[in-house]
């Protein structure tokens, strides 16, 4: 009798396209301590190269596949919410998962450590850049890292697309998003809005195609039971309460008012630091679509309106931002440092101190809204996990993001491999580095930080001998 039941159970698993899980993954892992999580978030902040696509892929690989702290279905649900927010979605996703695991302090620590290594590194590099100009050593390292970044984004498009585009409907949304941003140059918020509408309509007319349930079941075949699994109820701190929502919103407003009020009272509204705080607050709240939607706004304001930087300086800052760990929007630290550094020199003030203070301030005003969005909205998101009317639009958004990431990989590849434009020659050395990095990441699944270090050394050797 027991044998018959076992055979029946095996046939049911086969019909569902699943395989029996190893004993090691049949049970969820032990809950990580707060300090274990702190060590992971610090490591992630140090190795999170490749922009939001690469960072999200890194978190998926570690948190979903390897550590199994969260299931893929819960991971994607949180990611979809972060994609709809203004600000850096990868940093917001880290904040969300940290909050889900270890309450408010876990979310704050995860979000801060995600950007802290990048902030420190960019302040140092910005000082070297402003004080000493172009460094051959830095140029060589960047030469090798840029093709590796292209390969990282390509790998991210492959990984996210492989687990997201489960049917022809979602493939169609991804393809339409690629055409819209590559050929039609539609703004990212419009693409996201249309994808959400397509997901909503699909959820009504083709609910099976836009439901995440089937996909979540397939994931368990590969990764096993997760600590925060598909059916794990939200912990007590993740349940919605009006009192908690009002407390988070009031705290966020106070944390913005205190430094902004101090700057206005001590320095005046027209002072550079006060204007930087106001400008980057607007950038954090009004620009949707991640760093690549924020950058045109920052470029126009910092160069055209305020004159904090020259166009060439902004492009150098983008190169540093794209090739250092952390979210690409950390380029705001470069903008703040160099802008304040130049004005401090003209006023005979300690330029390095002015630049450091400006970098810290603009980082504060840029990222504060992201923490508030997650800590305030997280309980609402957790309460809607099984509501197809809300999850189907988010599924459509995820499919569209795959198309946008593919466009990003193409954009990076074009600018890295043809640095002199379409009429210039192909950079064979950069192409070789990109191919090697792509093979190492996609075929052999090497760690991103190892590939980055290897490619940086190759770039350094290239600059030394050529």
TrEMBL record:
The gene is chrA. It is a multi-pass membrane protein. Belongs to the chromate ion transporter (CHR) (TC 2.A.51) family. The chain crosses the membrane at residues 108-129, 135-157, 169-202, 245-267, 279-299, 319-340, 352-376, 396-417, 424-442, 448-465. The keyword Transmembrane applies. Coiled coil: none annotated. It comes from Duganella qianjiadongensis. InterPro entries: Chr_Tranpt_l_chain (IPR014047), Chromate_transpt (IPR003370). Keywords: Cell membrane, Membrane, Transmembrane, Transmembrane helix. This is Chromate efflux transporter. It is found in: Cell membrane.
């Amino acid at each position: 009798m027991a044998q018959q039941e076992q055979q029946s159970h095996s046939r049911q698993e086969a019909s569902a396209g699943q395989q029996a899980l190893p004993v090691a993954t049949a049970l969820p892992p032990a809950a990580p301590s707060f300090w274990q999580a702190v060590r992971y978030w610090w490591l992630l902040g140090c190795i999170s190269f490749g922009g939001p696509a690469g960072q999200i892929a890194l978190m998926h690989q570690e948190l979903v596949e390897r550590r199994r702290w969260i299931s893929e279905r819960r991971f994607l649900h949180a990611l979809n919410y972060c994609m709809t927010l203004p600000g850096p979605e990868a940093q917001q996703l880290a904040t969300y998962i940290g909050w889900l695991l270890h309450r408010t302090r876990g979310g704050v620590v995860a979000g801060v450590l995600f950007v802290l290594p990048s902030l420190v590194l960019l302040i140092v590099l910005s000082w070297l850049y402003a004080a000493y100009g172009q460094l051959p050593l830095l140029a060589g390292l960047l030469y090798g890292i840029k093709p590796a970044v292209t390969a990282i984004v390509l790998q991210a498009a492959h990984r996210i697309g492989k687990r997201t585009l489960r049917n022809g409907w979602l493939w169609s949304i991804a393809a339409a998003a690629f055409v819209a941003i590559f050929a039609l140059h539609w703004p990212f918020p419009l693409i996201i809005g249309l994808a959400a509408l397509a997901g909503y309509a699909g959820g009504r007319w083709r609910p099976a195609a836009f439901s995440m349930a089937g996909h979540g079941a397939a994931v368990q075949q590969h990764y096993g039971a997760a600590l925060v699994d598909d059916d794990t109820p939200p912990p007590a701190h993740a349940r919605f309460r009006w009192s908690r929502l009002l407390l988070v919103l009031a705290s966020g407003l106070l944390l913005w008012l205190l430094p902004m009020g101090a700057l206005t009272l001590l320095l005046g509204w027209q002072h550079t630091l006060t204007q930087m705080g106001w400008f980057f607050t607007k950038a954090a709240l009004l620009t949707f679509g991640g760093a690549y939607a924020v950058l045109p706004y920052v470029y126009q304001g910092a160069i055209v309106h305020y004159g904090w930087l020259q166009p060439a300086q902004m492009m150098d800052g983008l190169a540093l931002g794209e090739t250092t760990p952390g979210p690409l929007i950390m380029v705001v630290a470069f903008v703040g440092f160099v802008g304040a550094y130049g004005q401090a020199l003209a006023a005979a003030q300690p330029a390095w101190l002015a630049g450091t203070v400006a970098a810290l301030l603009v980082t504060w005003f840029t990222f504060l809204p992201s923490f508030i969005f997650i800590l305030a909205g997280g309980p609402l998101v957790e309460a809607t996990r099984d509501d197809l009317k809300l999850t189907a639009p988010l599924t459509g958004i995820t499919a569209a993001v795959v198309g946008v990431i593919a466009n990003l990989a193409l954009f990076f590849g074009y600018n890295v491999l043809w640095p002199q434009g379409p009429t210039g020659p192909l950079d064979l050395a950069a192409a070789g580095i990109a191919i090697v990095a792509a093979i190492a990441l996609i075929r052999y699944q090497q760690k991103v930080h190892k590939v980055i270090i290897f490619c940086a050394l190759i770039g350094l050797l290239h600059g030394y001998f050529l």
